[in-house]
């Protein structure tokens, strides 16, 4: 599915999403993150959905087809591109979402729908859920891709996220620490599972998301003159980290 966006004389075709946002990513050391966080605390507020430490644990299971199309599209920088994932928080099944993340012309968009634990586990076991057709358009789309392209779970990603928010520009800055990957996709709610670190020890990811503009005050606080923007992908690097076990179903 696609829609046409016309801006002046520019005509771009992008994949359909609820809303597109800018998304900047940087790989940072522990020290760099601590310094930036101390600066941001003066103007930004912690996300109210986080715990008393301002954090939450994220686990996401990513899907790909038998040709590993999403993996190679990411490697080749194909634009536009999309991928499906299931996401849960703090090892809880209280909120489980099926999401489709879309990258198009330097912007990112996302569509999502809530699913229950039974449906989630059936999807992670590689089972057909055709009996769920009609519950939500996004779930229908996932079912069609499973039946026609062999969509299946390939990687479980985990990290600890500390988010801050700023109303002007709808800015959201997240500190993603201890990023790891596992082939044991059905362990999404398990407290203990085998994982492989995606980045060298002491390195993490800073993400900056905003709508139409990034306020100068925020840009100045995160710009230390040393960090470089990256195309870091948890999905792509996680799949590389688990290597030959990527085809396992957990």
Short summary:
With 250 residues, this protein is an alpha+beta fold.
Verbal overview:
Helix content is 22%, strand content 41%. It has 250 residues and is of the alpha+beta class. The protein has 6 helices and 13 strands. The chain has one domain: VTC, catalytic tunnel domain (mRNA Triphosphatase Cet1, Chain A, Alpha-Beta Barrel), CATH 3.20.100. A hairpin with a 4-residue loop joins β9 and β10. The two termini are 31 Å apart. Strands 3-8-7-6-5-9-10-12 form an 8-stranded antiparallel barrel, surrounded by 5 helices. A two-stranded antiparallel ribbon has the order 1-2. It is globular.
Instruction: Sum up the overall morphology in one term.
Output: globular
Terminal residue distance: 31 Å
So, CATH architecture?
Alpha-Beta Barrel
Characterize the biggest β-sheet. 8 strands, antiparallel, barrel
**Low-pLDDT stretches:** 1-15, 246-250
- Supply the number of helical segments: 6
CATH class: Alpha Beta
The number of strands is 13
Assigned CATH superfamily:
VTC, catalytic tunnel domain
Reading the helices and strands in chain order gives EEEHEEHEEEHHEEEEHEH
Q: Would you give the CATH topology? A: mRNA Triphosphatase Cet1, Chain A
Quaternary structure of the protein = single chain
Pairing-aware structural class of the strands and helices?
A: alpha+beta
In terms of DSSP E residues, the strand content is 35-45%
Percent helix: 10-25%
- Order of strands side by side in the largest beta sheet? 3-8-7-6-5-9-10-12
Radius of gyration over all CA atoms, rounded? 18 Å
């Amino acid at each position: 599915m696609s829609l046409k966006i016309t801006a002046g004389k520019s005509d771009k075709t992008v994949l359909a999403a609820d809303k597109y946002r800018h998304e900047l990513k940087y790989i940072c050391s522990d020290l760099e993150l601590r310094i930036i966080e101390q600066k941001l605390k003066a103007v930004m507020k912690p996300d109210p959905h986080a715990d008393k430490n301002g954090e939450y644990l994220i686990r996401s299971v990513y899907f790909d087809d038998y040709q590993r199309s999403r993996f190679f599209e990411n490697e080749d920088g194909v634009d536009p591109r999309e991928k499906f994932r299931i996401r849960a928080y703090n090892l809880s099944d209280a909120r489980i979402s099926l999401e489709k993340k879309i990258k198009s012309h330097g912007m990112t968009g996302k569509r999502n729908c809530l699913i229950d634990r039974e449906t989630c586990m059936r999807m992670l076991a590689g089972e057909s859920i055709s009996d769920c057709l009609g519950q939500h358009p996004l779930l229908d789309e996932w079912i069609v891709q499973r039946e026609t392209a062999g969509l299946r779970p390939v990687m479980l990603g985990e990290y600890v996220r500390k988010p801050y928010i700023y109303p002007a520009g709808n800015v959201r800055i997240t500190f993603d620490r201890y990023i790891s990957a596992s082939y044991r996709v059905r362990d999404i709610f398990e407290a203990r599972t085998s994982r492989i670190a995606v980045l060298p020890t002491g390195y993490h990811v800073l993400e900056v998301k905003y709508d139409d503009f990034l306020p100068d005050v925020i840009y100045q606080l995160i710009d230390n003159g040393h960090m470089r923007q990256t195309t870091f992908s948890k999905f792509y690097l996680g799949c590389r980290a688990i290597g030959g076990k990527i085809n396992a179903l957990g």
